[in-house]
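User: quick one, sequence for these tokens?
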């Protein structure tokens, strides 16, 4: 699967970290985490008209402060 081979999960995590840091500066750490409930990823090259392919979601509770701040290091 191209999504896993290309490490799009890492790209998703980087964007989540940046979004978390931005929201943390605006609202504080607790409220920032409440605003990140999960992600939808639209894999445009994998989308086919009339089908649900190419759309992925992740709502499995990995959006914790410890995961967002340490995951990349």
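Assistant:
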């Amino acid at each position: 699967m191209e999504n896993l081979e290309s490490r799009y999960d890492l790209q998703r995590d980087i964007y989540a970290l940046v979004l978390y840091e931005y929201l943390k500066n605006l609202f504080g750490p607790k409220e920032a985490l409440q605003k990140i409930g999960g992600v939808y990823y639209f894999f445009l090259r994998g989308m086919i008209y009339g089908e649900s392919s190419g759309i992925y979601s992740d709502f499995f509770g990995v959006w914790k402060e410890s995961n967002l701040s340490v995951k990349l290091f």
